[in-house]
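Pair request: fold both.
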Amino acid sequence: MRKSTFILALIPVLGTVSSCISDEENLDVVFEQDLQKIEEYIQTVETEYTRRETIEQTGIELLFLTEEVESEELPEVRDTLAVNYTGMLLDGTVFDTSLEQVAQENDVFNPNRTYEPFEVILGMSNVINGWHWSLSQMKEGEKAIALIPSSYAYGSQSNGPIPANSVLVFELDLVEVRPYQP
């Protein structure tokens, strides 16, 4: 009886101690775990990439797959970008794509959807921040694999087939850049 009373008395104490960890500290832990998962994933990439870039302090890794590009200019905020993409979880599960054949092969095909390059207004469109960061570093005609930490994707929120705190993998093909016309 005393043992169960002691354990019951400890529950509020443990709750208080665990609540002393701030949300920011939790975010830092998740971010560090994401970086480790990204590095482990890169070690398994079988596709040959020409260069690797880390985007500033975001932890986003870009593995570039092309050597020749249509333009040497990086897109600017408000430029309209046409992008073919395939979005995956680290385990290879495809959750979305702009490519009809990829959608059919991965059981995500939607007959009510148009499969074509997705248009993004850089820095303005309602897409995950990881896309804005990644696409801002790509030139027209480049293809890359973007590895995006959860904090630049959906964070602690799940989104359809995407679990909370998921690192996302996007195969991106920047098909066209149309400069902003005020």
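--- second member of the pair ---
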Amino acid sequence: MAGQNNNAPVGVFDSGLGGLTVAREIMRQLPSENIVYFGDTARVPYGSKSKDTIVYFSRQIVEFLKTKQVKAIVVACNTASALALEEIKDEVDLPMIGVVKPGAAAAAATTKTGRVGVIGTRATVESGIYTEVLKEIDPSISVIGKACPLFVPMVEEGMTEHPVMMEMIDYYLRFLKKSDVDSLVLGCTHYPLLRSQIADYLGSRITLVNPAYETARGLKKLLEENNLLNRQKEQAAANLYVSDLPERFKAFANSILPIDIDRVKTVNVEQY
């Protein structure tokens, strides 16, 4: 895999907008890497769908990314990482990384009480994937999971600063605030966009773990191991694709990414 693929892009996909937090971290930590991003905006949310459906969608997206000659794939979606990654990894002759394992490893390294909280979509929390991975790292860790389904639509509506958002944070996280959890995984890629609000609410006793940040670190390691790091120094390119609503996506991307996005293309992922 070494050599000729180094300048090829990294493929990144998510059910919609949230994975842009992962793309943002990759751009910050690996500024030389070109990115092809796909957001499945026509079929979002994934968090309420079955495992079979998410595996099916993920396979289609991977096939699309392969047509862009990507050198590695980042599953920038907790739900797809939890339910599809292991299933499709062996079918793809490319290095792949999800957001769950890097996030879990950081939480295990952070906790002092051995009590870790995980918030995410219903599918991620009910899959128990974070509990499974954390217990593989340290069997003595106990995990409290909480699904926060309304966070995603509110973030996508741009309501992160809205008073209703603070009411939702209180509604979902009140019991965590009273628990002895000292490390909390933001187990959905939208949630880093609520990081400061959640931190203000929970206080300094609970350390927030951002899997987007940890995934970019993990990607760097993966590319190094496969001798695939892009050594060129010029500003990398990012090509963004969606299955629906490109203008809305472009506005959101430009509000959080460190580079200007002038175009988002629509692709019919059903054909792959």
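Observation on the second member. The chain has a mean pLDDT of 94.
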